[in-house]
Amino acid sequence: MKINQFGVIKRTFEQKINELALIGFYDEKIQAAISKGSVPLLQALLEQAAQSTAVTTKFDDYMVNGQQDLAAFLATSKQVTNQEFNAIALQLLNFEEAVDYNLADSVQAVNRIGLPLFSKDGDWSTQDVLNAWYDLLTAHTKGGLQFIDELVSHQYLKPTNQTVFFNGKALATFDTNQLIKEVVYVETDLDTDKDGVKDFVRVDIIRPTTAQKVPTLFTASPYYQGTNDVVSNKKLHDVNQPLQRKIPNNLTYEDIAYEPSEPEQLTAHEQTGETTVATETFYPKSHVDLNNYFLSRGFAVAYSSGVGTRYSDGMQDTGSPEQVISMQAVVEWLAGNRQAFVDRQSGVTIKAHWSNGKVAMTGKSYLGTLATAVATTGVAGLETVISEAAISDYYQYYRDNGLVIAPGSFPGEDMDVLAELVYSRMQDAGDWHRTKAQWEHFQKQTVSDMDRTTGNYNTYWDARNYLKNVPNIKADIVMVHGLNDWNVKPRQVFRLYQQLQELDVVKKLYLHQGQHIYINNNRSLDFSDQMNLWLSHKLYGVENDAVAQLPDLTWQSNQTPETWETRQSWGTTTPTKISLANVQTPVSYTDRQTKVAYESYSKDYDHWRSLMIDRDNHELDHSRVIFSQPKQKQDLVIDGEVSLQLRIKSSTNVGLVSAMLVDYGDASRLTKKPVPQGSQIDRGVNWQPTPLVEFEQAKATPNKMITIGHINMQNRENAWRVNDLRPDEYVDLTLTLQPTLYQLTAGHQLGIVIYGTDFEMTVRGNQNITYTIDTKHSQLLVPVVTSK
C-alpha cells in the first residue's frame, strides 16, 4: 500500500505547539508530562487521543515490538525512539501487522507507505515527541482520513459551529444535525420563456448553524431537480445512418462566429418587502460528496439547476450563454450583488446575509462544465473553480472534425437529448402542460441549429465554446480529468489548460487513469485534504501556503498502482516523426461488414473495439490497417497530442478516418474503474459516509488503447470549412488524436490502428467504401520524452 499526501504543510515547532494547544494536545496535563520525559509525554498524548472512540486506553492492545506491548513499554521504558513511535503510529492509523507492515521494520514501512512522519535517530526528547505527534495527526489512516480527521469524526472535538484550522485545513467542527436547509429564487436578467418578465432560478442552500459568515461551494447542476430518463431515451438519434456528402463551401470563422445580442428590456418582479428568514425548505437530495465533506467544516453549499428546470422559469438550452448567465446570477447573489426572493409570489426579497461573499464552484461533467463556463464570465465573488471531467467546448463533445461523434457509451445522444433529460419542468403536470407547446417548438429549433446532417461547426456551436472566453477568467482554476475518459474526452481539459497558461491566475491540474469519475474518495491520493487546504485559503483567507504547496500538475502513473507523480507541464514536448513507409504502399481497407457482423458490432461495440485493437485476431483485418513500431528499448512517456498525417483516398465522394493509438505488450494494467476497498470515509461526525476506492492491478492483457481520434475527410482544413472529395483522389489530412500522458514500457510496441466506422462513436452507415493510404507520404507525430 502506498499513500501520496501533497496537502501536508510544513510548520515550525512554535506553530505546531500553537495548533496542538488549539485542539487540546497541549493542555496543562500534557505540559506537566513534558517535565517527566518523552515516555510520560507520549502516554499523556495517547490518553488525550482516547477522548475519541478511535483510540483505546487499553494500551496492551497495541504492540511496540515483537516482545513488548504498549502498556509494558509505557511502564518500563525511559525513552522513545523512531522505531517504537512508528510501530505505535502504524497501529493508530489502522494499518494491519503482517499485512501492511511488520513490527521489526516499522520505519521502513512508514517510508514505503509514504506517511509524512517525523524521523530522527537515537533517543527522542519531549520536543521530538511533540513534533512526531503533530506529524502523526496529519498522516492518513488506512481508512482514507487524516488521523486528526479520524479522531474528530469519532467525537474527539465536540461540535462548536466555529471554524478550527489544523495544518492549514478546516476540521469537522460543525454539527451536521443542525444544518439549515432553505430555498431562494434568484432573479436573472433573462427571459428565455419570452413572457416579458425576468426568469427566476431556484437555489437550494444547505448551511451550518453559526453566527460567523461562511463561504459557499456552489454546484450548478441541471440534473439536480430530477431527470426525464424515459422521455430522453426516446429522443436518442439513430446512428445507423450513412455518412452524407456535404456541399463544399468557402466559409471563414468570421462567417459563423457567435456575437452576443443586446440585452433585452425586461420587467423586474415587484418588491413588497425584505426579510432575513427564508420561508421554504427542501428534503435532502443526492449531493456532491466533496460538498458534503465541506459542510461539516464551516462551508455552505448551494445547488441550482438553472433556467428550464423544475421550480425555475425558462427553456432548457444545453450549454447556451443563457444557461451560463442563469448560473452566474446565483454567484452574484451569493456575493451580495444580485436580488433574490423567498418565493415566486410574495415579492419579499432576501439577501445571503450569512455569506462572506466568497464562492467556489464544484462538480463533475455537466456540473464542472457550468463551473468552467461561469468562470469565463469573470463574475465577481467567484474565487475559484474545482472542475472535474468538464466540457470546455461542446462541439468537441458531440462533434469532432466535421463528424457527428457520440460521447463514449452514449451513441445517439446529442444536445436536444440532453436538454430533454434535464427539462425537469415536465415532472409537474401543470407546469408541463403550460409549457409543452413552447418546449416542443424550442426543441425543434435546437435540432435544426445543432445540425446532425453535416456535423459542421457553426454559430450554434461557437456560442457554446467557452474557450473563446478564457481570457475573461479571474478565478483560480483546479482541473481534474481522466486520461481514459471517453465520455468527456481529454481534449476538453487539455485545450483549457493550454489557454490558461496565458493568464495570471493559479491553475492546478490532476490527471488520473480513470474514466468519468470523481477522485475525492481515492485511497492513495489525499485529494480532499488538498482541496481543504485550497479552499481554506481561497475562501477563508487562511495563510497556509496552498498555492505553492499543491503541485501544479499531478499525474497518476499508468504503470504502478497507488503512484501519483508531480510534473511541471503537459503537452510541451516537440513531436517525433515516425514514418509509416516501412510497410507496403499503398495499403487499403474497407468499411463494409456482413449483415450479421454489422448487427453484432452495433449491439456490442465494446466487443467490436477489442477485435479492432487485437492484432492477433483477424476477423477485422479487412477493415483496418495496423502500423506497429519496433519494441521499445527503454520506457518513454507520450506527452500531449499525437497527430497522424495521412495521404489517403476514398473510393467514393465521402469518407471518414478513425484511428487508435495502442500499447501492444502483455502487462497487468490498472482497473478501468476504482475498486471499493470495503470501508467508508466519514465526511464529518456520522455524516454522509462514502466508499473508499482504489485503482488496482487487473489481470494481464496483451494491449491497451491509449487514445483515439476521428475526422471527416471533407473537413480536413477545419470544422466549418467543407472541402470537396472526389472518388479515388488522394488528399492530405492531419488527424490529431485526443491528448494523453502515458508511459510506454520497455519491450512494448506502439501501434496505430487506422479504420473507418467507429461503432461506438461515429455514424454506422455500413457503406461499401474502400480507403487507400499512400504510406510513403504518411507519418505519425508522437511527442515522446524518455521516462525518468
CATH hierarchy, class of the domain at 576-786: Mainly Beta
- CATH H-level superfamily of the domain at 576-786: Galactose-binding domain-like
Using the 3D structure, state the CATH architecture of the domain at 576-786. Sandwich
Radius of gyration, Cα only, in angstroms? 29 Å
- What share of the residues does DSSP label as strand, in percent? 15-25%
Widest sheet: strand order? 6-9-8-3-4-7-5-10-11-14-15-16-17
The general outline is: globular
Q: What labels describe this entry?
A:
788 residues, alpha+beta, Jelly Rolls, 6-stranded antiparallel β-sheet, serine-type peptidase activity
Short summary of the structure?
The protein has 22 helices and 32 strands.
Secondary structure blueprint with pairings:
Layout: H1 13-22, H2 28-34, H3 38-49, H4 70-76, H5 82-92, H6 106-113, H7 126-138, H8 147-153, E1 165-166, E2 169-170, E3 180-187, E4 200-207, E5 214-220, H9 229-234, H10 253-256, E6 273-275, H11 289-295, E7 300-304, H12 321-334, E8 340-341, E9 348-350, E10 355-364, H13 366-375, E11 382-388, H14 395-398, E12 399-400, E13 403-404, H15 415-422, H16 429-450, H17 459-462, E14 476-482, H18 491-500, E15 507-512, H19 527-540, H20 546-549, E16 553-556, E17 564-567, E18 576-579, E19 587-590, H21 595-603, H22 605-613, E20 624-628, E21 636-640, E22 643-650, E23 656-670, E24 675-681, E25 690-694, E26 697-712, E27 731-736, E28 740-744, E29 749-755, E30 770-773, E31 779-782, E32 784-786
Parallel strand pairs: 5-7, 5-10, 6-9, 10-11, 11-14, 14-15, 15-16
Antiparallel strand pairs: 1-2, 3-4, 3-8, 4-7, 8-9, 12-13, 16-17, 18-31, 19-30, 20-29, 21-28, 21-32, 22-27, 22-30, 22-31, 23-26, 23-29, 24-25
Active site: 365 (charge relay system), 485 (charge relay system), 516 (charge relay system)
Domain X-Prolyl dipeptidyl aminopeptidase PepX N-terminal: 1-156
Organism: Weissella jogaejeotgali
